Structure formats: structure tokens, C-alpha cells
Amino acid sequence: GDLVSRTPDDARVAQYRPGQDPELLAKLFHYGRYLLIASSRTNGLPANLQGLWNDSNQPPWHSDYHTNINVQMNYWLAEPAHLAECHVPLFDLLDKTLPVCEEATRAEFGEQVPGFCYRTSLNVFGGQGWEWNATANAWCAIHYWDHYAFSGDDVFLRERAWPYFEGASRFWLARLEALDDGRLVVPKGWSPEHGPREDGVTYDQLLVWELFRITERAANLLGISGGLVEEVQNALGRLVGPSVGRWGQLMEWMEDRDDPEDRHRHTSHLIGVYPGTRIDPLETPELAEAARVALAARGQTGDSRRSWTWPWRAALWARLGSSKGHAMLDGLVAHNLLPNLVTTHPPLQLDGNFGVTAAICEMLLQSHTGELRCLPGVDFEVWPSGSFSGLKARGSFEVGARWGQGAVTVDVVSKRGGVVVVKAPYPCRAATDVERGISIATHGGEEGAARVETREAGRYQLQFG
User: What is the pTM of this model?
Assistant: First the structure.
């Protein structure tokens, strides 16, 4: 209440108990947006491991960009939290450093290998440091795709995203190796930061699948066909996919050797759940169940408490349709939050701040499958009532919702027109056409869903419960 919200932040953090201060979590949500606005501006550098705040000539990890979770987590919030313009400095850096990355790629993998890839550590000049993380090019491609998917900006897709997809795809078409049965694997890959280098690591396989799927979709939208696209389509169908192991887990490697007692901090093999799209509880339920088993076995934070582990696991649980993300938010506050609300990976690291905003977005709204899922990760005993407004969804929709007492009202603004299915925890009972040009109907008898056809931009409201 008022008394809690007027308590200084340091005291709120020290006194925090699960479920007793949801306004602090709301403040963290907005703080993450503020930090990205402040550290990722037009014509500037993207947010690094410390955002842009550094008081040392020898800062932790050189205040650079780590491509195996950290810089990506910095930008997970940009599109859903309605900060698309803050995403652009990341693309600026990646585009401008491509010549340096291409040179480093040829030096490592051979003059005959086209395209580019990355090491784990990337600096503002394109220089690369510790440990090759080659599929980071595919991971970053997801960011280019999402920037298009949320906005529908055809010019960005054609002029900036497509060249990136093309270069990354050409690299992997040249690097993939065939097994005896004809299936394709990423050679000598790594499951950051876990295990040895070997072929067919799940993390690598899932990321190359995402890249090829994105490239195929972009080509269809742009009317591009021919050699590269046909090669990508052929390879897409031959990639080794994720497998379920002996104790029901999503396997991290091709060999079924996962240890159910392993508490490693990274969950790299679950990248197909989030931020990827390969594994979904409605579309691939068996793989989603295996992902749940694997995630539960890793425990809350893994083998060390680092600020980025909590929000990634919160987002993973939300994508799996679970409300266990609430416990992850509580853990971040309890273990990795300084009195000034900056997250720690001692002394400080801002990916946790950015990540918690992104995770809450996934708990409130998801759009990665082409439908809008409202409140998929919310426990209504923890947040019995609430509201949000101004979140973005793929397809250029702006969404808000209010809930409480067994009912949800969803407000949607369509920026470009289109067809979308809206799902909520309760059956749809009423729909209002706020502006003309919109057709609304319940969706084939499916409880908790409504189909909305917006032939032109407009506004509508759905009531569930």
C-alpha cells in the first residue's frame, strides 16, 4: 500500500517477502525500461554489460558485449516493452563491425568460408576475445527478425535484416557437416558455458534452426527465391533436432549423458523455448514437457547466483505456461539486487535489470506463435488483480489488459491490420468493435480464445471471464 511505496528502496529490498510488495516488481519493470532508454540511444553505442556506467579503466569483463546471453538479454525487452528505437544501436554496432568479424571468421575457419560469426566477447571495434560462440550470429539474427516482426517495417527487413540473415546463413551452409544418415550437425560446437566442444550440441542446433527458419520466412516476404533460399530450405529439413533423454529431460548434447543432479547456471539447451520458438507447450507438447523436466532439474539459479540467471528462468517458465517465474523474480530481489535496484554479478551487471523487464513482459503477454496469449505466466493468487498497458506484440499490435475477480479485459490496438487470435485464462464472453473495419468472433469454440480480423488499423476490446 501507500506505506510500502513510500518506504525507501533500500529498506524495501531488505524487507522484501514474496507476494508482499508487487509494486517493487513494477518499479523494477519500469527501471529496466529507463536504463535501456538511458544507455541505448540513437547514433550511440548499445548497452554493454554495465549499460554505459563505468568508473574504472579496468572494468569487469572490459565493459564489452558478451554474445552467449548477456548482450541479447540487454535487448529482450526492447520490442515487447515498446522501446524499438532503443534496439537500433545494437543493429548499428553489428552492421558496422561486420567487416572485422568477416576477417576474423576467415582467419579462423578458412578463406573459403563465407559470412561471419562471433566469439563470446565482442568490443566496440569489432575485436573479439574469449572462446568462439559461432552460433551467436544466429542468436543475433533473432533480434533483427523480432525488430521486423513487431513493427512490420519492410524497409528494415529488406535493407538491414536480410543481408544479415544471408551472411549468417551462408556461413552455416558452409560449416554444417552431414552424419552417416544425412542429417546435419554444427561441428565442434559448445553449450555455453557447459561441457566440451563436440558435434550436434542442442544449443547450436536450435539456433541454426531459428536462423534458417527466419531466413526462409524473410525470403518469402521479400519475394526472394533461388540458390541460397533453396539451400536453406533443404538444410532446415535435415538439421538434427532436439531429443528427449532417459529421465525425460531435453538433452543438452546428442549423447544422453545429462546428470539430473547438475545445477549449472546456464540453460543454453533450452534456447528453443525462449527466446527461440522451436519448442512450445501447445505446438510441441512433448518437447515442452522435456524442457520443463530439464529446467526443474537445474534448480532455481544453477551453480552460482548471477543476476541474469533469474530472468532467463522466469521467461522460460512463462513460455512453458507455468507461473514459476514469480519465484524467479523473488529470487532476484532476495539475492542479486543492490539497495539502489541495480542487479549484481558482482560488482554490478545490468543484464539482470533489462532481463527482469523482459521476463515480466513474457509473463503478461506472448506473441511468438502468431497469437496473443494474455497472462500466460501469472499466478492469480500472487497477483490477484492488476493491469498493464502499452506492451507490443508481433504483428504491430499494442496491448493492454486489466484483470481481477475471475475476469480479464484485453484492449488491442492494431497498427497495420491483420488477423490475430487472442487467448486469455477464461472464456471470451464479449467483444467490442471500438473503431470500424474490425470483425470479431469467438474462435471455433475454443475456450479462452477470440479471433480478430483487422482489415485496417483499429481498436478493439475483448472481455473474458
Answer: 0.96
